[in-house]
Design goal:
The complex is a heterodimer of chains A (about 50) and B (about 675).
Chain A: H1 3-29, H2 42-47
Chain B: E1 2-7, H1 13-21, E2 38-41, H2 44-47, E3 53-56, H3 68-79, E4 84-90, H4 94-105, E5 111-116, H5 118-124, E6 127-128, H6 130-137, E7 141-143, H7 152-162, H8 181-202, E8 203-204, H9 214-222, H10 227-244, H11 251-273, H12 279-297, H13 300-316, H14 318-332, H15 340-346, H16 350-356, H17 363-372, H18 382-392, H19 397-421, H20 443-477, H21 494-505, H22 514-522, H23 529-537, H24 546-549, H25 557-562, H26 566-578, H27 583-593, H28 596-626, H29 633-674
Parallel strand pairs in B: 1-3, 1-4, 4-5, 5-7
Antiparallel strand pairs in B: 2-3, 6-8
Helix pairs in contact in B: 4-8, 6-8, 10-13, 10-19, 11-12, 11-13, 12-20, 12-23, 13-20, 15-16, 16-27, 18-19, 18-26, 20-23, 21-22, 22-23, 26-28, 27-28, 28-29
The chains are: A mainly alpha (about 50), B mainly alpha (about 675).
Chain lengths: ~50, ~675
């Protein structure tokens, strides 16, 4: 296995790890729509009978 | 301590809340942007060492709720006992705003009035004597400009200092029976005359409301039922030309060309570095991650330019006029005029659009709007539209325009269908919306709105889309025995075997190949995935390089690789645009509808609509271009007829249920009369 392959595998693993971790954290915060600039207020909306 | 921010719609509450808390909640130049309460701690520069929570409430015209979000406000100020209320009053429309103020002053909670938008009054020559107003209302009044942070510190300091005191009301409502409509009306008139008396004493206007000025003349054209719609169509066409079309006006395309060039160079560099690596590693990194995500990110400039233009239109006050001009048409098809606002918001994202349906009072109208709003293509669908317009139609602007206007037509037709199924009778409903004043749009607001959306787009591409593309690449590379699929045996891959049964159902639509079916399926996770998956499964990232890939005479690289003609490309595009939105939006629909029946009805209707539109486009398009119907005409026709039959059956069932209820009601009435 050459250096480029090892580096590529590490990069793929790191990218996927950080992507999954970000999604997990956002979901834990109650944000259903990843990346939405107004997602922070969604849990409160849900308390009022709505949600996203 | 808690300070509630309450006031009429579009008085600038959320702008003030954002300025005081440092938050970045959605604002807009029309009423009804805030549909739920939000709270956050005040910045230290305003609250000092104290912990003060600001509560931003939806706009309300009075304490008697007319819509669900007004109910949130009246319930909060009545039951949550905030330590103080900051009543944001639109200084440009004092008489209308003070009705609610006098009601808030009756609650006993200390109130501070923020006379907002005083900068506009200065420009118009309107003067309000704040000291006199304060004396009349028995509460402090501060002149504020939320957008410039003017007067906010003094106002908040006063609100904090008043916490725990008892507010004395200048006007007390008589003890009347609130169920007696006439008594309530008479009481409201008394309150209005009290308010008008105050306004006459404290306000001096250079321009009287009854006088016709330039903006009134402009409004008379823009709000004309025919001219208004033609102008709206022209404005939206211009927006699509600038943001998405090829040509001298196509700013979006110019930036996009630069952007995709960089992405392709980077992808080529990554692929070159992995020349001696196993094919799977190169495929995942270069094709799946860089290529797939790059294909989606490549459309970012188009999305940004479009959001920038929409933000300018919103901020200058034009979009509120569009709502007013569309109102009569919406009412005719059984929707509330308020349904226009979710449709406009839906051009950005379906989820806030669905949430905005909450402002619609009637439950049936609200659910119908929730069900149909996502027919308007959201921002996530822009890359899909741009991809097909660029690769198959030489970047023609009409593809985008047609997609959006067809979305509006489908909303109308869907509303008529639901109206007929639910046995709804036309009745007069009211759409009260205050037209905001025309203003020069704020470039700062437009740039911020654009950057927020761009950030959201990039985050989504770097998380959801990236993971999906990686999975698609892995599923395409391996078969069920986890062996690498050999060249020529792609049909044995995991992805192919999962997508093939769906592809079979899509044969009557002209795109019955597993790659296209797989892209459509991943689109339910996020619509941008359609582009990412197509890039991955066809190993194509240069979709939008029109010089190389534009369809010319039906033999371009994209057309050949994807196996689509212009007709099937259009059918596939419409299928992806009008079938159900992403899962997150479906979740929002579920929350707002609060009915499994309506939710499944919505999903069924959207699936049926997307399928039928694609079927009609493919079959009749093939008939016109080739002189015969396309493959699978009969099975497709049977499928469409089955859907029509299902709709008729559901309609009959619903009507039978209504008849049953009506008979029971009649019998109960007769029994009561006899007794």
């Amino acid at each position: 296995m050459n250096f480029a392959t090892v580096a590529a595998i590490i990069i793929i693993a790191a990218i996927l790890f950080f992507a999954v971790r970000y999604i997990y954290k956002e979901k834990k915060k109650g944000n259903a729509c990843i990346g939405c600039p107004y997602a922070d207020s969604c849990p409160k909306h849900r308390q009022n009978g709505g949600g996203c | 301590m808690r300070i509630a921010f309450a006031g009429n719609p579009n008085s600038g509450k959320t702008t003030m809340y954002n300025a005081l808390t440092g938050r970045n909640e959605k604002i807009g130049n029309w009423g009804g942007v805030t549909v739920g309460s939000k709270e956050f701690q005040l910045k230290k520069e305003f609250a000092g060492d104290k912990e003060v929570i600001a509560v931003d409430l939806p706009g309300a015209y009075s304490m008697s709720p007319f819509t669900p979000e007004e109910g949130i406000t009246s319930e909060y100020v009545r039951t949550a006992n905030p330590d103080a209320i900051v009543n944001i009053v639109d200084a440009t429309n004092l008489s209308r705003s003070l009705f609610f103020t006098t009601q808030l002053l009756e609650l006993g909670i200390p109130v501070v009035v923020a006379l907002n938008k005083t900068d506009i009054n200065e420009k118009e020559g309107t003067k309000i004597d704040a000291a006199k107003l304060s004396a009349k209302l028995n509460c402090p009044v501060f002149e504020t400009v939320s957008t410039e942070n003017k007067g906010l510190a003094e106002m908040i300091a006063k609100a904090i200092s008043l916490a725990g005191t008892i507010q004395k009301a200048p006007y007390l409502q008589a003890d009347i029976d609130l169920h007696d409509k006439n008594a309530v009306d008479a009481e409201d008139r008394k309150r209005y005359s009290f308010v008008n008396g105050i306004v006459a004493d404290v306000e001096t206007r250079k321009t009287l409301s009854a006088e016709t000025n330039k903006t009134d003349k402009l409004d008379s054209v823009l709000l004309n039922p025919i001219a208004g719609i033609i102008i709206f169509a022209a404005v939206m066409f211009a927006v699509f030309q600038i943001s998405q079309a090829e040509g001298p006006l196509g700013i979006g395309k110019i930036f996009e060309g630069l952007f995709t060039g960089w992405i392709e160079t980077f992808q080529g560099w990554v692929a070159a570095q992995l020349e001696n690596s196993p094919a799977i590693v190169s495929a995942i990194l270069a094709d799946g991650i860089v290529g797939g995500v790059g294909a989606v990110v490549g459309f970012l400039p188009l999305v940004m330019v479009m959001y920038f233009l929409i933000a300018l239109l919103e901020d200058c006050g034009y979009m509120a006029r569009v709502s007013a001009v569309m109102d009569p048409i919406f009412k005719r098809v059984g929707l509330s005029g308020k349904a226009v606002i979710p449709v406009i918001i839906g051009t950005g994202c379906g989820i806030p659009a669905i949430m905005a349906c909450r402002t619609i009072r009637d439950e049936r109208e609200r659910r119908t709007s929730t069900m149909l709003t996502t027919f308007i293509p959201c921002g996530a669908k822009i890359p899909v539209i741009a991809l097909f317009a660029g690769a198959f139609f030489n970047g023609a602007g009409w593809v985008s325009t047609l997609s959006y206007f067809l979305g509006i037509v489908l909303i109308f037709l869907g509303a008529l269908l639901i109206k007929s199924i639910t046995g709804y009778k036309y009745r007069k409903s009211f759409f009260i919306m205050e037209l905001p004043k025309w203003k020069v749009p704020s470039l700062k607001y437009a740039v911020r709105s654009m950057l927020e959306r761009a950030k959201a787009y990039i985050i989504k591409a770097a998380t959801i889309i990236l993971i999906c593309n990686t999975l698609v690449q892995v599923m395409q590379t391996f078969n069920w025995h986890f062996q690498v699929v050999e060249e020529g045996a792609e049909n044995t891959s995991i992805l192919a075997t999962i997508a093939s049964p769906f592809a079979f159902l899509l044969i009557p639509l002209g795109f019955g190949v597993w790659q296209l079916a797989a892209a459509a399926i991943t689109g339910f996770i996020a619509k941008e995935n359609v582009v990412g998956t197509l890039a991955t499964v066809f190993a194509l990232t240069s979709f939008i390089d029109t010089e190389e890939l534009a369809m010319t005479g039906g033999a371009s690289t994209v057309a050949t690789t994807m196996g689509l003609t212009t007709v099937t490309a259009l059918a596939y595009l419409f299928f992806n645009l009008y079938t159900p939105p992403c899962f997150a939006a479906i979740g929002a629909m579920n929350s707002e509808m609060k009915s499994r029946g309506w939710l499944w009805g919505a999903i069924g209707l959207q699936l049926g609509t997307g399928y039928t539109i694609a079927f009609l486009v493919y079959q009749f398009g093939t008939l016109f271009t080739e002189g015969h119907f396309g493959t699978g005409f009969i099975p497709g026709l049977i499928a469409v007829l089955c859907m029509v039959a299902a709709l008729i059956l559901i309609g009959r069932k619903v009507r039978a249920h209504f008849d049953e209820q009506y008979q029971l009601h009649k019998a109960a009435k007769a029994a009561k009369a006899t007794a």
